[in-house]
Amino acid sequence: MAKTRRASALEDSEAAAAARPTKRAKLDEAEEESSAATGSKPKRKAASKNIDKTMFPERHGSQWKVGAHASAAGGVENAIVNAAAIGANAFALFVKSQRKWTSPALTTTSITSFKARMEEYGYSSSVVLPHGSYLINLGNIDADKREKSYECFLDDLKRCELLGLELYNFHPGSTVGAATTAQSISLIAECINRAHKETNTVTTVIENMAGAGNIIGGDFAHLADIIAEVEDKTRVGVCLDTCHMFAAGYDIRTKEDWDASLEKFHSQVGLSYLRGMHLNDSKTPLNSKRDRHENIGMGHIGLRGFHHILNDPRIHNIPLILETQNFETPEQTWAKEIEVLNKLSGLDLAVDEGEAQCSAMAKEIKDAIHHADKAGGKPKRKTRATRGGKKKRKTEDDESEEGDDDDDAC
Protein backbone atom coordinates (compact mmCIF):
# COMPACT_ATOMS: atom_id res chain seq x y z
CA MET A 1 0.00 0.00 0.00
CA ALA A 2 2.82 2.42 0.89
CA LYS A 3 4.47 1.63 -2.41
CA THR A 4 1.29 2.50 -4.28
CA ARG A 5 0.99 5.86 -2.55
CA ARG A 6 4.65 6.55 -3.26
CA ALA A 7 4.29 5.77 -6.95
CA SER A 8 1.23 7.97 -7.13
CA ALA A 9 3.08 10.84 -5.46
CA LEU A 10 5.92 10.49 -7.90
CA GLU A 11 3.60 10.56 -10.89
CA ASP A 12 1.71 13.57 -9.59
CA SER A 13 4.96 15.47 -9.13
CA GLU A 14 6.67 14.59 -12.40
CA ALA A 15 5.79 17.74 -14.30
CA ALA A 16 6.22 20.04 -11.32
CA ALA A 17 9.63 18.55 -10.67
CA ALA A 18 10.81 19.52 -14.13
CA ALA A 19 9.98 23.21 -13.77
CA ARG A 20 8.14 25.75 -11.64
CA PRO A 21 8.79 29.35 -12.65
CA THR A 22 7.84 32.29 -10.49
CA LYS A 23 8.25 34.88 -13.20
CA ARG A 24 5.35 37.32 -13.05
CA ALA A 25 4.98 37.39 -16.81
CA LYS A 26 4.55 33.64 -16.92
CA LEU A 27 1.98 33.70 -14.15
CA ASP A 28 0.05 36.35 -16.07
CA GLU A 29 -0.05 34.08 -19.11
CA ALA A 30 -1.43 31.14 -17.14
CA GLU A 31 -4.06 33.37 -15.55
CA GLU A 32 -5.11 34.78 -18.91
CA GLU A 33 -5.40 31.36 -20.51
CA SER A 34 -7.36 30.01 -17.56
CA SER A 35 -9.89 32.83 -17.82
CA ALA A 36 -10.33 32.20 -21.52
CA ALA A 37 -10.91 28.50 -20.96
CA THR A 38 -13.58 29.03 -18.32
CA GLY A 39 -15.44 31.66 -20.29
CA SER A 40 -14.94 34.33 -17.64
CA LYS A 41 -13.73 37.75 -18.59
CA PRO A 42 -9.99 37.30 -19.17
CA LYS A 43 -7.51 39.59 -17.51
CA ARG A 44 -5.86 40.40 -20.79
CA LYS A 45 -3.44 43.15 -21.49
CA ALA A 46 -4.81 44.94 -24.52
CA ALA A 47 -2.41 45.16 -27.41
CA SER A 48 -1.29 48.75 -27.76
CA LYS A 49 -2.10 50.35 -31.09
CA ASN A 50 0.30 53.22 -30.46
CA ILE A 51 3.60 51.67 -29.45
CA ASP A 52 6.33 54.24 -28.92
CA LYS A 53 9.37 52.41 -30.26
CA THR A 54 11.57 55.42 -29.51
CA MET A 55 11.39 54.43 -25.85
CA PHE A 56 12.84 50.97 -26.53
CA PRO A 57 16.55 50.31 -25.89
CA GLU A 58 18.68 50.05 -28.99
CA ARG A 59 19.20 46.43 -29.96
CA HIS A 60 22.84 45.47 -29.96
CA GLY A 61 24.31 44.47 -33.32
CA SER A 62 25.97 41.22 -32.35
CA GLN A 63 26.21 37.62 -33.48
CA TRP A 64 25.40 36.58 -29.90
CA LYS A 65 21.60 36.79 -29.83
CA VAL A 66 20.74 37.65 -26.23
CA GLY A 67 17.13 37.93 -25.06
CA ALA A 68 14.66 36.76 -22.44
CA HIS A 69 11.40 34.87 -21.95
CA ALA A 70 8.86 37.49 -23.04
CA SER A 71 5.30 37.60 -21.76
CA ALA A 72 2.63 36.65 -24.28
CA ALA A 73 -0.20 37.80 -22.02
CA GLY A 74 -3.00 39.24 -24.13
CA GLY A 75 -1.90 37.34 -27.23
CA VAL A 76 1.26 35.68 -28.53
CA GLU A 77 1.90 38.70 -30.74
CA ASN A 78 2.56 40.78 -27.62
CA ALA A 79 5.67 38.73 -26.83
CA ILE A 80 7.43 40.36 -29.78
CA VAL A 81 6.77 43.87 -28.50
CA ASN A 82 7.76 42.87 -24.97
CA ALA A 83 11.04 41.45 -26.27
CA ALA A 84 11.83 44.57 -28.28
CA ALA A 85 10.99 46.72 -25.25
CA ILE A 86 13.95 45.27 -23.32
CA GLY A 87 16.42 45.37 -26.22
CA ALA A 88 16.30 41.63 -26.84
CA ASN A 89 17.82 40.16 -30.00
CA ALA A 90 16.09 36.85 -29.28
CA PHE A 91 13.18 35.72 -27.15
CA ALA A 92 11.25 32.79 -25.75
CA LEU A 93 7.52 32.58 -25.14
CA PHE A 94 4.75 30.17 -24.28
CA VAL A 95 2.47 29.49 -27.24
CA LYS A 96 -0.30 28.52 -24.80
CA SER A 97 -0.76 28.15 -21.05
CA GLN A 98 2.14 26.18 -19.60
CA ARG A 99 -0.03 24.92 -16.72
CA LYS A 100 -3.06 23.52 -18.56
CA TRP A 101 -3.45 20.38 -20.61
CA THR A 102 -5.69 22.08 -23.14
CA SER A 103 -5.97 25.72 -24.16
CA PRO A 104 -8.09 27.75 -26.60
CA ALA A 105 -6.90 27.62 -30.19
CA LEU A 106 -4.79 30.46 -31.53
CA THR A 107 -7.01 33.00 -33.26
CA THR A 108 -6.46 34.01 -36.87
CA THR A 109 -5.93 37.57 -35.64
CA SER A 110 -3.14 36.51 -33.27
CA ILE A 111 -1.44 34.40 -35.92
CA THR A 112 -1.57 37.20 -38.50
CA SER A 113 -0.44 39.82 -35.98
CA PHE A 114 2.40 37.61 -34.75
CA LYS A 115 3.82 37.16 -38.25
CA ALA A 116 3.40 40.85 -39.05
CA ARG A 117 5.18 41.92 -35.88
CA MET A 118 8.01 39.45 -36.43
CA GLU A 119 8.69 41.25 -39.70
CA GLU A 120 8.04 44.72 -38.30
CA TYR A 121 10.48 44.26 -35.41
CA GLY A 122 13.06 42.37 -37.45
CA TYR A 123 13.06 39.03 -35.64
CA SER A 124 13.96 35.84 -37.48
CA SER A 125 12.28 32.60 -36.44
CA SER A 126 15.77 31.18 -35.81
CA VAL A 127 16.14 33.39 -32.70
CA VAL A 128 12.74 32.54 -31.20
CA LEU A 129 12.79 29.60 -28.79
CA PRO A 130 9.25 28.76 -27.60
CA HIS A 131 9.13 26.88 -24.31
CA GLY A 132 6.93 23.83 -23.91
CA SER A 133 4.31 23.09 -21.30
CA TYR A 134 5.59 22.17 -17.85
CA LEU A 135 3.05 19.36 -17.61
CA ILE A 136 4.63 17.27 -20.34
CA ASN A 137 6.46 14.06 -19.41
CA LEU A 138 7.19 11.97 -22.48
CA GLY A 139 9.24 9.54 -20.38
CA ASN A 140 6.34 8.29 -18.25
CA ILE A 141 5.97 4.53 -18.54
CA ASP A 142 2.23 4.84 -17.83
CA ALA A 143 0.77 4.72 -21.35
CA ASP A 144 -2.33 6.81 -20.59
CA LYS A 145 -0.40 9.57 -18.87
CA ARG A 146 2.27 9.56 -21.56
CA GLU A 147 -0.40 9.86 -24.27
CA LYS A 148 -1.89 12.86 -22.47
CA SER A 149 1.57 14.45 -22.43
CA TYR A 150 2.09 13.60 -26.08
CA GLU A 151 -1.13 15.32 -27.15
CA CYS A 152 -0.08 18.45 -25.26
CA PHE A 153 3.39 18.22 -26.83
CA LEU A 154 1.97 17.79 -30.33
CA ASP A 155 -0.40 20.72 -29.84
CA ASP A 156 2.57 22.94 -28.93
CA LEU A 157 4.39 21.91 -32.10
CA LYS A 158 1.38 22.59 -34.28
CA ARG A 159 0.97 26.04 -32.73
CA CYS A 160 4.62 26.78 -33.50
CA GLU A 161 4.04 25.82 -37.12
CA LEU A 162 0.97 28.07 -37.35
CA LEU A 163 3.12 30.97 -36.12
CA GLY A 164 5.92 30.22 -38.58
CA LEU A 165 8.37 29.26 -35.83
CA GLU A 166 11.07 26.67 -36.38
CA LEU A 167 12.19 25.74 -32.85
CA TYR A 168 10.42 24.25 -29.82
CA ASN A 169 12.20 23.74 -26.50
CA PHE A 170 10.96 21.20 -23.95
CA HIS A 171 12.02 19.30 -20.85
CA PRO A 172 12.63 15.62 -21.65
CA GLY A 173 10.76 14.20 -18.66
CA SER A 174 11.13 11.81 -15.76
CA THR A 175 11.12 8.09 -15.06
CA VAL A 176 8.83 8.88 -12.06
CA GLY A 177 10.67 6.07 -10.34
CA ALA A 178 8.72 3.48 -12.32
CA ALA A 179 11.03 2.93 -15.30
CA THR A 180 14.73 2.69 -16.01
CA THR A 181 16.48 5.67 -17.54
CA ALA A 182 16.95 3.70 -20.76
CA GLN A 183 13.23 2.89 -20.93
CA SER A 184 12.23 6.53 -20.47
CA ILE A 185 14.77 7.69 -23.04
CA SER A 186 13.29 5.30 -25.60
CA LEU A 187 9.77 6.50 -24.81
CA ILE A 188 10.84 10.14 -25.25
CA ALA A 189 12.43 9.38 -28.61
CA GLU A 190 9.35 7.42 -29.66
CA CYS A 191 7.14 10.43 -28.94
CA ILE A 192 9.47 12.75 -30.85
CA ASN A 193 9.36 10.41 -33.84
CA ARG A 194 5.55 10.34 -33.74
CA ALA A 195 5.37 14.11 -33.51
CA HIS A 196 7.76 14.57 -36.41
CA LYS A 197 5.48 12.45 -38.57
CA GLU A 198 2.45 14.53 -37.57
CA THR A 199 4.14 17.89 -38.19
CA ASN A 200 6.29 19.27 -40.97
CA THR A 201 8.96 21.74 -39.98
CA VAL A 202 9.51 22.45 -36.29
CA THR A 203 12.74 21.26 -34.66
CA THR A 204 12.25 19.64 -31.25
CA VAL A 205 14.90 21.11 -28.94
CA ILE A 206 15.65 19.01 -25.84
CA GLU A 207 16.75 20.89 -22.73
CA ASN A 208 19.47 19.62 -20.42
CA MET A 209 18.40 19.35 -16.79
CA ALA A 210 20.00 19.77 -13.36
CA GLY A 211 20.24 16.06 -12.58
CA ALA A 212 17.83 15.78 -9.66
CA GLY A 213 16.18 12.49 -8.76
CA ASN A 214 14.51 10.70 -11.66
CA ILE A 215 14.66 13.63 -14.09
CA ILE A 216 16.10 12.75 -17.51
CA GLY A 217 18.68 15.10 -19.04
CA GLY A 218 21.18 15.88 -16.30
CA ASP A 219 23.85 13.90 -18.13
CA PHE A 220 24.87 14.81 -21.68
CA ALA A 221 24.73 11.08 -22.39
CA HIS A 222 20.94 11.18 -21.86
CA LEU A 223 20.60 13.79 -24.61
CA ALA A 224 22.85 11.79 -26.92
CA ASP A 225 20.86 8.62 -26.31
CA ILE A 226 17.55 10.34 -27.09
CA ILE A 227 18.93 11.82 -30.31
CA ALA A 228 20.37 8.44 -31.31
CA GLU A 229 16.83 7.03 -31.39
CA VAL A 230 15.30 9.98 -33.24
CA GLU A 231 14.78 9.09 -36.88
CA ASP A 232 14.88 12.58 -38.42
CA LYS A 233 18.11 14.04 -37.08
CA THR A 234 17.50 17.30 -38.97
CA ARG A 235 14.57 18.09 -36.68
CA VAL A 236 16.10 17.52 -33.26
CA GLY A 237 18.42 19.73 -31.25
CA VAL A 238 19.53 20.70 -27.76
CA CYS A 239 19.15 23.77 -25.55
CA LEU A 240 21.87 24.10 -22.92
CA ASP A 241 20.81 25.81 -19.70
CA THR A 242 23.86 27.21 -17.88
CA CYS A 243 22.33 26.81 -14.42
CA HIS A 244 21.34 23.23 -15.22
CA MET A 245 24.82 22.47 -16.57
CA PHE A 246 26.47 23.85 -13.46
CA ALA A 247 24.08 22.09 -11.07
CA ALA A 248 24.66 18.81 -12.93
CA GLY A 249 28.43 19.10 -12.46
CA TYR A 250 29.60 20.75 -15.68
CA ASP A 251 31.75 23.68 -14.57
CA ILE A 252 31.76 26.82 -16.73
CA ARG A 253 33.30 29.41 -14.39
CA THR A 254 36.67 29.77 -16.13
CA LYS A 255 37.46 29.69 -19.83
CA GLU A 256 39.20 26.35 -19.32
CA ASP A 257 36.12 25.00 -17.53
CA TRP A 258 33.80 26.27 -20.25
CA ASP A 259 35.93 24.82 -23.05
CA ALA A 260 36.18 21.47 -21.27
CA SER A 261 32.42 21.26 -20.65
CA LEU A 262 31.57 22.27 -24.21
CA GLU A 263 34.06 19.71 -25.50
CA LYS A 264 32.28 17.04 -23.43
CA PHE A 265 29.02 18.13 -25.01
CA HIS A 266 30.55 18.02 -28.47
CA SER A 267 32.10 14.58 -27.98
CA GLN A 268 28.90 13.06 -26.57
CA VAL A 269 26.18 14.95 -28.43
CA GLY A 270 27.71 17.18 -31.09
CA LEU A 271 27.82 20.97 -31.40
CA SER A 272 25.78 20.75 -34.58
CA TYR A 273 22.77 19.95 -32.37
CA LEU A 274 23.13 23.08 -30.22
CA ARG A 275 20.15 25.24 -31.20
CA GLY A 276 19.85 27.54 -28.19
CA MET A 277 20.89 28.31 -24.63
CA HIS A 278 19.27 29.52 -21.44
CA LEU A 279 21.53 31.98 -19.64
CA ASN A 280 21.04 31.68 -15.89
CA ASP A 281 23.39 32.04 -12.96
CA SER A 282 23.05 29.48 -10.15
CA LYS A 283 22.04 30.01 -6.53
CA THR A 284 23.54 26.66 -5.60
CA PRO A 285 27.12 25.31 -5.88
CA LEU A 286 28.60 23.15 -8.61
CA ASN A 287 27.12 19.64 -8.82
CA SER A 288 24.34 20.48 -6.33
CA LYS A 289 21.72 18.75 -8.53
CA ARG A 290 19.42 21.60 -7.53
CA ASP A 291 17.90 23.95 -10.08
CA ARG A 292 17.92 27.48 -8.66
CA HIS A 293 18.20 30.27 -11.20
CA GLU A 294 19.96 33.45 -10.11
CA ASN A 295 20.44 36.77 -11.86
CA ILE A 296 23.53 37.04 -14.05
CA GLY A 297 26.69 37.61 -12.02
CA MET A 298 24.88 37.21 -8.71
CA GLY A 299 25.34 33.46 -8.27
CA HIS A 300 27.98 30.75 -8.09
CA ILE A 301 28.82 30.94 -11.80
CA GLY A 302 29.59 34.66 -11.80
CA LEU A 303 29.88 37.17 -14.61
CA ARG A 304 33.17 35.71 -15.86
CA GLY A 305 31.41 32.47 -16.75
CA PHE A 306 29.09 34.33 -19.10
CA HIS A 307 32.00 36.30 -20.57
CA HIS A 308 33.37 33.07 -22.02
CA ILE A 309 30.03 32.29 -23.66
CA LEU A 310 29.59 35.80 -25.09
CA ASN A 311 33.05 35.62 -26.67
CA ASP A 312 32.81 32.10 -28.09
CA PRO A 313 32.13 32.02 -31.86
CA ARG A 314 30.65 28.53 -31.46
CA ILE A 315 27.67 30.24 -29.83
CA HIS A 316 26.96 32.59 -32.74
CA ASN A 317 23.43 33.15 -34.05
CA ILE A 318 21.43 30.97 -31.68
CA PRO A 319 18.89 32.28 -29.13
CA LEU A 320 20.49 32.98 -25.73
CA ILE A 321 17.54 33.32 -23.39
CA LEU A 322 17.50 34.78 -19.89
CA GLU A 323 15.34 32.91 -17.39
CA THR A 324 16.69 34.77 -14.41
CA GLN A 325 14.65 36.03 -11.49
CA ASN A 326 12.18 38.54 -12.86
CA PHE A 327 10.46 41.39 -11.08
CA GLU A 328 7.16 43.19 -11.55
CA THR A 329 9.09 45.69 -13.66
CA PRO A 330 11.20 43.46 -15.94
CA GLU A 331 12.71 46.36 -17.85
CA GLN A 332 14.72 47.17 -14.73
CA THR A 333 16.30 43.73 -14.58
CA TRP A 334 16.21 41.90 -17.90
CA ALA A 335 17.03 45.00 -19.94
CA LYS A 336 20.06 45.62 -17.74
CA GLU A 337 21.17 41.98 -17.91
CA ILE A 338 20.86 42.03 -21.70
CA GLU A 339 22.85 45.26 -21.84
CA VAL A 340 25.59 43.82 -19.63
CA LEU A 341 25.81 40.54 -21.52
CA ASN A 342 26.18 42.43 -24.79
CA LYS A 343 28.94 44.56 -23.25
CA LEU A 344 30.83 41.39 -22.34
CA SER A 345 31.35 40.62 -26.04
CA GLY A 346 34.87 41.71 -26.94
CA LEU A 347 35.79 42.64 -23.37
CA ASP A 348 39.35 41.58 -22.51
CA LEU A 349 39.41 40.40 -18.92
CA ALA A 350 43.15 39.80 -19.11
CA VAL A 351 43.84 43.48 -18.57
CA ASP A 352 43.12 45.47 -15.43
CA GLU A 353 40.65 47.73 -17.19
CA GLY A 354 38.65 44.73 -18.39
CA GLU A 355 38.50 43.27 -14.89
CA ALA A 356 37.38 46.63 -13.51
CA GLN A 357 34.68 46.90 -16.17
CA CYS A 358 33.48 43.40 -15.34
CA SER A 359 33.15 44.32 -11.66
CA ALA A 360 31.35 47.53 -12.57
CA MET A 361 28.87 45.65 -14.76
CA ALA A 362 28.12 43.15 -12.01
CA LYS A 363 27.34 46.12 -9.77
CA GLU A 364 25.01 47.53 -12.44
CA ILE A 365 22.94 44.35 -12.34
CA LYS A 366 22.97 44.31 -8.54
CA ASP A 367 21.80 47.94 -8.49
CA ALA A 368 19.04 47.22 -11.02
CA ILE A 369 17.77 44.38 -8.82
CA HIS A 370 17.93 46.64 -5.76
CA HIS A 371 15.98 49.42 -7.48
CA ALA A 372 13.35 46.98 -8.76
CA ASP A 373 13.00 45.56 -5.27
CA LYS A 374 12.78 49.02 -3.72
CA ALA A 375 10.17 50.07 -6.29
CA GLY A 376 7.92 47.24 -5.16
CA GLY A 377 8.88 44.84 -7.91
CA LYS A 378 9.99 42.05 -5.62
CA PRO A 379 8.99 38.60 -6.92
CA LYS A 380 6.12 37.00 -5.11
CA ARG A 381 7.01 34.28 -2.66
CA LYS A 382 5.17 31.10 -3.43
CA THR A 383 4.46 28.03 -1.42
CA ARG A 384 3.80 25.01 -3.56
CA ALA A 385 0.48 23.46 -2.77
CA THR A 386 -1.70 20.58 -3.78
CA ARG A 387 -5.23 21.06 -5.07
CA GLY A 388 -6.49 20.65 -1.53
CA GLY A 389 -4.45 23.62 -0.41
CA LYS A 390 -1.94 21.66 1.66
CA LYS A 391 1.76 22.09 1.20
CA LYS A 392 3.14 19.55 -1.19
CA ARG A 393 5.76 17.17 0.09
CA LYS A 394 9.01 16.88 -1.73
CA THR A 395 9.72 13.70 -3.63
CA GLU A 396 12.96 12.40 -5.04
CA ASP A 397 11.97 13.98 -8.37
CA ASP A 398 11.65 17.49 -6.98
CA GLU A 399 14.16 20.09 -8.09
CA SER A 400 12.81 22.68 -5.69
CA GLU A 401 12.19 23.06 -2.01
CA GLU A 402 8.99 23.72 -0.20
CA GLY A 403 8.50 27.41 0.44
CA ASP A 404 11.41 28.56 -1.72
CA ASP A 405 11.06 32.05 -3.10
CA ASP A 406 11.79 30.96 -6.64
CA ASP A 407 10.94 27.67 -8.25
CA ASP A 408 12.14 28.67 -11.70
CA ALA A 409 13.50 25.40 -13.00
CA CYS A 410 13.15 26.37 -16.60
Automatic annotation (TrEMBL):
Top-level taxon of the source organism: Eukaryota
GO biological process, one term: base-excision repair
Biased composition (Basic residues): 377-393
Classification via Pfam families: AP_endonuc_2
Cofactor: Zn(2+)
SUPFAM superfamilies: Xylose isomerase-like
This protein's record includes keyword DNA repair: yes
Keywords tagged on the record: DNA damage, DNA repair, Endonuclease, Hydrolase, Metal-binding, Nuclease, Zinc
Tagged with keyword Nuclease: yes
Biased composition (Acidic residues): 397-410
Molecular function terms, GO-annotated: DNA binding; DNA-(apurinic or apyrimidinic site) endonuclease activity; phosphoric diester hydrolase activity; zinc ion binding
Region named Disordered: 1-55, 369-410
All residue ranges annotated as the Xylose isomerase-like TIM barrel domain in the record: 82-343
One GO cellular component term noted in the UniProt record for this chain: mitochondrion
InterPro entries membership: AP_endonuc_2, AP_endonuc_F2_Zn_BS, Xyl_isomerase-like_sf, Xyl_isomerase-like_TIM-brl
PANTHER family tied to this protein: APURINIC-APYRIMIDINIC ENDONUCLEASE, ENDONUCLEASE IV ENDODEOXYRIBONUCLEASE IV
Family according to the record: Belongs to the AP endonuclease 2 family.
Name assigned to this protein: Apurinic-apyrimidinic endonuclease 1
Lineage: Eukaryota, Fungi, Dikarya, Basidiomycota, Agaricomycotina
Gene symbol of the encoding locus: nfo
